Amino acid sequence: MADITTINPATGEAIKEYDYMSNDEVNKIVESSHQAFTEWRKTSHEARAKVINSIGETLLKYKEELSKLMTEERGKLYSQSLQEIDLCKAICDYTAEKGVAALADDERDLEGLKKGIVTYQPIGVIYGMQPWNFPAYQVFRYTIANLMAGNSILLKHASNVTGSGLLIEKIFHESELPNDLFRTILIDHDQSEALIGHDKVRGVTLTGSDGAGSIVGQQAAKAIKKVVLELGSNDAFIVLEDADVELAVETCTQARLINNGETCVAAKRFIVVDSLYDDFRERIVKKFADAKSGDPMNDDSDLGPLARKDLQEKLHEQVEDSVAKGATIAVGGQLPEGKGSFYPATILENVEKGQPAYDDELFGPVASLIRAKDQDDALRIANDSRYGLGGAIFSKDEAKAIRLAREEFDTGMVYINGYGLANPALPFGGVKNSGHGREHGGFGIKEFVNIKGLHVHKSQ
User: Using an 8 Å Cβ cutoff, are 238 and 260 in contact?
Assistant: First the structure.
């Protein structure tokens, strides 16, 4: 029996089977990755940038093939799979354009020294554990920055998108990048823990749940390895009394339902001040009621299936548990019959502390609608969470919204009067149980480098 069987979540049918690699095979890959690094680290920043550009160009040759495979393996809408590839290409373009300057030595005039030099040197093999929700983007987000920094990459992808992980490896290998600088490895959890402790692995990065982050963080700490953790969240989208309600409704709908609601930085709690609550509620319930689930390859589908049957079951349990503890269903909330792991667009009201809909991350198209007394109460509710990845503020007073986002909102990212998954030019990451470390915006390039200080003394 195969170790991994990928399944189409729209039909429940098996796609392909895979076996785990042996420990010997994994160790050989690590050694080859390290050897490739010893050469790559000597490559100029400008030469690395050209290779990064070639990766982006090669990716576009496989745009339709990879998009269709991502849709088949995890159920995301095909149109959104295509958009994901465009975002990956944008990451390549941004990194190639900005990476050379970001990694340049910083010379400083210092009293008592001829000069001081801060230099950013690569450290070696970076091991990434990535989730299934954005099969390409999650990989490109950490890989491209670290290749630009001069490191080499190992990828352990989520088992249900194994085919996507292997196709991404093929794409990298068909670019100008030396093959051993990027390898997709098929391993289990015990092999993964051993890999974290491997002496040739110098950095560890995980995108996943806060539970997984706690485990990996402890494993990395035991081995004294630098780690970047991008974990879950239950992001609050705050609608203030001076907001454009129509804009807020449109944006919140998109920000909750995009990627079938399976997005760490999606809108999950709609916190609306009392004066706008009823109007907002009426409009957004209609939006959710009109959202159509269907074949993710069809243009007229608004939602595809959740990525796995067990995820569908878990989400429904969270909804039922919230209702048992006092929440009410404004729309949706019924487990559909038939094949696949679909779940309807759902809004819960009367959501309070102690319910999964308030405390936890609901990974699917389920939103919590919460009434706030006023602006201060809205921010209090927003920050009353163990998470802190992203969030949003809607207000026609842009200066006020910026001030609140900067000074009051305890998250790593805030959208103001809009929503976008990520921008390669701005940092991505969170606080509290949403993890630590940053990707994008030039920050990811320096997460896994040796920031080395050179003290150059005057000749006697």
Answer: no
